[in-house]
Design brief:
The protein has 495 residues and is an alpha+beta fold. 34% of the residues lie in helices and 23% in strands. The chain has 2 domains: 241 residues, Nucleotidyltransferase, domain 5 (2-Layer Sandwich), CATH 3.30.420.40; 211 residues, ATPase, nucleotide binding domain (Nucleotidyltransferase, domain 5). The strands form 7 sheets. A 7-stranded mixed sheet has the order 17-18-16-15-21-22-23. A 6-stranded mixed sheet has the order 3-2-1-5-14-13, with helices on both faces. A two-stranded antiparallel sheet has the order 4-7. The longest helix is centred in the last third of the chain and has 27 residues. The chain is globular and about 70 Å long. Bound molecules: adenosine-5'-diphosphate.
């Protein structure tokens, strides 16, 4: 028996999972690490703690399952994206903490760039919206603000990497400086048309090319381990950003296939095939995956508040004790009673991008109860998702015939059924919700022949639940009308 080891390096914890030949996770281990908030707009991680938490979860999962590195066919990586690390090439020491994707310290810089009129150039080349979220302005900040950084960069002694790149460097004992193409496509320095680092953008952000990692595909041997935790050298054979890894883990290999992850927020990714599609609805165009000579592009949309609205029912309103109680409460009433909740707590993400929107509850009457509000909160998740799906259909001209789902909130059957009703398409929920780690494992396993082909994988993974639409389109139309009215009142609120 041999296994694929998947590293799932997330924003709050590092996880390690073992996958067997059937593509199922057989053991898992997880370690949380410290979040640093040096200022209200800043979020940082210690790169050494990212590494130590990751490698100790690896050792834990292998000892838990009683295996050694000889039993590993390959390693695959999935990681928090955009988070920026800069380290010295000569010593391997980070020169600053990792600046996390959530960090807003460079928001002003992005506004300046926008008023300089470079937003369109950036969108055209990278498929992204000019924003502090992506790596470019974070690297620029480190070079400007860390003593000696600029000089070291010019002397070719600094390496930049997103978290995948940092883990690959550490796993290979500092011999490989590489990143995969999906992570590269989130830096705002990568041209998604030529699939290369873009000199014009590097110049714009004054970033020396020598800092950048080599870009590799998502499924190939990138290097071999050279670190104590592995007695033998194991190939690192797959890597992808977390949302793209989930796209693969959900087997979204065909054009038009799509996944949504329902966590704190929602992340929707649509495989648009072999050409990038620019968005007219503020979605991101990005690389979905590159396997062998096939590259799939994707459209991506993020919703800021999804499961977080349920947390608010629990912690803010205190009308439920646990997130899962929301289902029973919502089902205790026949319908929403005309109540709509727009959870624009921190503005609205895709496809509205309105930082001035604020949350509201509307349609309240004397008969409104907690149950209507809980129901409205769950329904709001589904409406927001439907708005992004609609934008994706408009941008791509594709008809989306099924949605594959994962993430913590998908255990709520009411939510998933309502999602199917609103979209009018089937929703497929896999038995195992470990789709991100599974994607990393599949990419690595395909590269080393652990699995023969994408088609072989489809046969292996089974056990999905499918939810079919169950209400009339007329009724949906009416419900959506209510949602759209509520949405319009929530938008531009504090302008
Ligand atoms: P993240 O990775 O963003 O931390 P998870 O995938 O772990 O998120 O999902 C946790 C989120 O899902 C929380 O916001 C929680 O409120 C929500 N959630 C979990 N279970 C349910 C449920 N049964 N019904 C509704 N929401 C749920």
């Amino acid at each position: 028996m041999s296994f694929i080891l998947a590293l799932d390096q997330g924003t709050t914890s590092s996880r390690a999972l073992l996958f067997n030949e059937e593509g199922n996770a057989v053991a898992t281990s997880q370690q949380e690490f410290t979040q640093h908030f040096p200022d209200t707009s800043m979020v940082e991680h210690d790169p050494n703690e990212i590494w130590s938490s990751q490698i100790s979860s690896v050792s834990a999962v292998m000892s838990k399952h009683g295996i050694s590195s000889k039993d590993l066919a390959a390693i695959g990586i999935a990681n928090q994206r955009e988070t920026t690390i800069v380290w010295e090439r000569s010593t391997g020491n980070p020169i600053y903490n990792a600046i996390v994707w959530q960090d807003r310290r460079t928001a002003k810089r992005c506004e300046e760039l926008e008023s300089d009129g470079v937003g369109e150039l950036i969108s055209k080349k990278t498929g992204l919206l000019l924003d502090a979220y992506f790596s470019a302005t974070k690297i620029e900040w480190i070079l400007e603000n860390v003593d000696g950084a600029r000089k070291a960069a010019e002397a070719d002694n600094l390496c930049f990497g997103t978290v995948d790149s940092w883990l690959i460097w550490k796993l290979t004992g500092g011999s490989v400086h590489a990143t995969d193409i999906t992570n590269a496509s989130r830096t705002m320095l990568f041209n998604i048309h030529s699939c290369e680092w873009d000199d014009e953008l590097l110049e714009l952000f004054t970033i020396p090319r020598s800092m950048l990692p080599k870009v590799v595909s998502n499924s190939e041997t990138i290097g071999r381990t050279s670190v104590d935790a592995f007695a033998t050298d194991v190939p690192i054979a797959g890597s992808a950003g977390d949302q793209q890894a989930a796209l693969v883990g959900q087997l979204c290999f065909e054009q038009g296939s799509m996944k949504n992850t329902y966590g704190t927020g929602c992340f929707l990714v649509l495989n648009t095939g072999d050409k990038p599609i620019p968005s007219r609805h503020k979605l991101l165009t990005t690389i979905g995956w590159q396997i062998g000579d096939r590259t799939a592009y994707a459209l991506e949309g993020s919703i800021f508040v999804a499961g977080a609205a349920i947390q608010w029912l629990r912690d803010g309103l205190e009308i439920i004790k646990k997130s899962e109680d929301s289902e029973k409460l919502a089902r205790s009433v026949e319908d929403n009673g005309g109540v709509y909740l727009v959870p624009a707590f921190t503005g609205l993400g895709a496809p509205h991008w309105d930082p001035h929107a604020r949350g509201l509850i509307t349609g309240i009457t004397r008969g409104t109860t907690q149950a209507h509000i809980a129901r409205a909160a769950l329904e709001s998740i589904a409406y927001q998702v439907a708005d992004v799906v609609e934008a994706m259909q408009h941008d791509s001209g594709m008809t989306i015939s099924e949605l594959r789902v994962d993430g913590g909130a998908t255990s709520n059957d009411f939510l998933i059924q309502f999602q199917s009703d609103v979209l009018g398409i089937p929703i497929r929920r896999p038995e195992s919700v470990e789709t991100t780690a599974r994607g990393a494992a599949l990419l690595a396993g395909l590269a080393v022949g652990f699995w023969d082909s994408i088609d072989a994988l489809k046969g292996e993974i089974e056990g999905d639940s499918v939810f079919q639409p169950s209400i009339s389109r007329e009724k949906v139309q009416k419900l959506k009308q209510g949602w759209n009215t509520a949405l319009s009142r929530a938008m531009h609120w504090d302008n």
